[in-house]
Amino acid sequence: MNVAVADLESTLEISGNLVPQTRVAVAAKLPGTLSSVRVDIGDRVRAGQVVAAIDRREIDAQVDAAEAAVNVGHAGVEAAEAALANAVLERDRAQNLFDRGAVAKQRLDAADTARRSTAAQRDLAKANLAQAEAALRRAREVQRDATLTSPIDGVVVERHYDAGSLVGPGDEPVVVVADLRVMKLEAGVSELEAGRLRVGMPARVSAQARPGDVFEGRVAAIAPEVDARNRHFRIEVRIANPGTALLSGMYGSATIPLERAAQVVAVPRDAVITRDGKRVAIRIEGDSVREVPVTEGLTDGRLVQIASGLQAGDVILSDARQDIAAGTKVNPVLSK
C-alpha cells in the first residue's frame, strides 16, 4: 500500500449506564396512612407539586388545639398586662401618700409587693404564650410534612405505595422523581488517561437503544482521588437531554477527543511491529523489502501517525506481521 496523509484524532472511550444527574426520593417524614398518591410512573411533575398526602385529620385537630392555646395565651398576657398597670398605679398612689405622711410604710411595702407579683405573673403569661406559639409552629410543621411534594421538576421513575398504605420515616420512598433533562455517564479511567482529561472537554455520546444517534456532552467532573480497589479515577460526563431521548438505565458509551493532528503521515496500526526492540515498518523498494525504523505519534485506534521513518508515497506492507525476511523479492500489488 502507498503511505498517505490523513487527519487523526486520538480519543478515549468510556462506557456505562446512563443515569439522571438529579434523582430525588420523596419519602414520608412522619408515620401515618396515605390518603392519596396523586402521581404514577412516567408522570411529569413540577417543583412544589403535591405527589402524595398522609391522612391529617388528627394532625389538623392538633393544630386547632394549638391555635386555641395561643389565643388563650394572648388573653392571659392582656389580663396580666392590665393587672400590672393597675398594680403600678396603686404603688405610685401609695408612694405619693407615704411621701405626704398619709399612710404607713407597711401600706407602701404591700403595694410594691403587689406590683412585683403582678409583673411576675405578666412574665409568666408571656412565657406561656411563647410556649404555645412554639407548639403551634411545630404542629403546623407536622401538618406541612403530611403533604409530600416534589422538590424538583422531573419525571416519576418509581412509585412504591398506594392510598391506604402505612408509611413512616425509614421506609421506602413513596415516589422517586428524576430530572431527565441532564443525564450523566460515570466510568473509571487509568491514572495516565485521567492526566490527559480536563473538565469541560467535549464528548460524543451514543446509546445502544438509540443506534445512529449521537448526543453532545462534556466532561463535568474528575475525581481528585484514585479508587484504591482498581487504581482508577472516576470521571463524569454530562449530556444535555432536552427531548428525553435518553432514559435512565440505558447503556451508553462516550468518545472524548484528546488530540488532533491534521494532514500527517499515517499508516494502519498493523503496518508497524516491534522487532529487536525497535518499531519498524516493511517498506518495498523496487522488487524487494526492507525494514525501516519508525517513530510513532498519536493514533485513532485504526491508523497511527508516523513522525519519522516514512513519507507520503512510500510503498509498505499493510500487515507487517507477515514473516518476510529483509531482501526478499516481491511483486507488490498496491491496495487502495
Essential attributes:
336 residues, Elongation Factor Tu (Ef-tu), domain 3, OB fold (Dihydrolipoamide Acetyltransferase, E2P), 3 helices, 17 strands, 6-stranded antiparallel β-barrel, elongated
Tell me what the structure shows.
With 336 residues, the chain is α+β, with helices and mostly antiparallel strands. It folds into three domains: 9-22 and 179-259, Efflux pump adaptor protein, beta barrel domain (Elongation Factor Tu (Ef-tu), domain 3), CATH 2.40.30.170; 28-55 and 146-173, RNA polymerase II/Efflux pump adaptor protein, barrel-sandwich hybrid domain (OB fold (Dihydrolipoamide Acetyltransferase, E2P), Beta Barrel); 57-142. The protein is 26% helix and 39% strand. The protein contains three helices and 17 strands. Strands 1-8-11-10-9-12 form a six-stranded antiparallel barrel. Strands 5-4-2-7 form a four-stranded antiparallel beta sheet. Helix 1 (57-99) runs antiparallel to helix 2 (105-145). The longest helix has 43 residues, at 57-99. The protein is elongated and about 140 Å long. The protein starts with a strand and ends in a 28-residue tail after the last strand. The model has no long low-confidence stretch (mean pLDDT 91).
